[in-house]
Amino acid sequence: MNIRLEQVVKTFQSEGGAYTALKGIDLEIGAGEFVAVIGKSGSGKSTLINMITGIDRPTSGKVMVAGQDVHALKRSRMAVWRGKNLGIIFQFFQLIPTLSLVENVMLPMDFCGTYPSRDRKRRALELLDRVGMAEQAGKMPSAVSGGQQQRVAIARALANDPPILVADEPTGSLDSKTAESVFGLFRTLADSGKTVVMVTHDNDLAQKVRRTVVVADGEIVSESVLQAFPRLDIDQLSQLQPLLGRREYPPGAVIIREGDEGEEAFIITRGEVEVSVRGADGRETLVNRLGAGQYFGEIALIRQVRRTATVRAAGTEPVELAVLGRSALRDILGQSDPTREDMDRLIRQRMEELALHGLRGRHA
Ligand SMILES: Nc1ncnc2c1ncn2[C@@H]1O[C@H](COP(=O)(O)OP(=O)(O)OP(=O)(O)O)[C@@H](O)[C@H]1O
After folding, report:
1. 46 CA to middle of ligand 1, Å?
2. What sections of the protein cross the membrane (predicted)?
């Protein structure tokens, strides 16, 4: 694992009182992954990024980056460690205005003492070439466009060949065409084996990344929840997140029982469950097995019927669930017609499966 956050909490103390910007974040990012971090303004994205780069310290919890406990580093060692392991790219490039582009790219090598000094310029020029800026190497930052400055900032981030690139809104101040080409550069870098973590407001770009981490109200929306409700937008997910409860069941435990009243629906965030129904002869038949990213318990809530099946925790590990009460489910479906349509379709399919087991009309 290249980046691992365990129960990271960040509370800011200010005159108005304490504000918890991160509420116990668990996150793992593997080597070579390309991850987009998205979320509403103020949700905690930058705070999360600052935990990874060591720019800010967590109030509690642990942050491991490239095998190092970041916040166990002494302040004096932090800057050099960061310089060698992380390439950091900001929205506003932050090139040094009094240095030429090639000098800007040489700076991290000078700072960390990586590469012999006679090789640094050649390496900087190679990196500028890689981002399509070699011909402008001698220019000052103010003499090139924003998109070009960001390319140089990326070359600078690559100076010490760090395994991880962290970018906070790298395309935020670029027009969409330039943003697209800078994004393409990140993709090429990820394809070449770099781990890339990129905060973005741009949903179109986020869609193009294989893995999306959604931050809502200081928490990460479970990837299973994203999978269960793929058609919710960021605002809807941000509203859903605080309504979700968490529950765990040991293997074999009954989560819902056929014939009972139902008040909650469940999204599986870890493990598997078995769905079974009682036949006319009273014997139970297994009708389905569901895993992470799938939901159950919705039929009773939507169709206003008793539980149509019994669901048990399966496997040998505890099953973890996100729990959604009746009114929360109603709220979210009321806001997202596509999600409502998906759920209606799934319910029809599930009712048909139950009917196949000779149960039509028993509870429906
Ligand atoms: N130094 C600080 N002191 C007090 N509160 C802070 C501090 N830094 C951030 N916050 C608060 O923490 C919350 C999360 O901020 P953060 O900058 O991480 O959000 P964000 O998702 O990056 O937003 P944006 O997309 O607008 O940059 C905000 O409510 C912010 O006001």
Report:
1. 7
2. none
Mean pLDDT score, 116-128: 94
Q: 83 CA to middle of ligand 1, Å?
A: 25
For residue 273, the CA-to-ligand 1 centroid distance in Å is 39
Domains and CATH numbers, the chain: 29-44+71-217 (3.40.50.300), 239-356 (2.60.120.10)
**Residue 42, ligand 1, Cβ within 6 A:** yes
Helices (H), the chain: 45-53, 75-85, 101-112, 117-130, 146-157, 176-191, 203-207, 223-228, 234-240, 298-303, 326-335, 337-356
Prediction pTM value: 0.87
Q: What is the mean pLDDT of residues 115-121?
A: 92
**According to the model, what pLDDT value does residue 364 have?**
41
pLDDT of residue 208: 86
What is the Å distance from ligand 1's center to 203 Cα? 20
What is the percent of the chain with per-residue pLDDT over 70, rounded to a whole number? 98
Ligand 1 contact via 218 beta carbon (within 6 Å): no
Please state the length of the chain: 364
Nearest Cα residue to atom 18 of ligand 1: 44
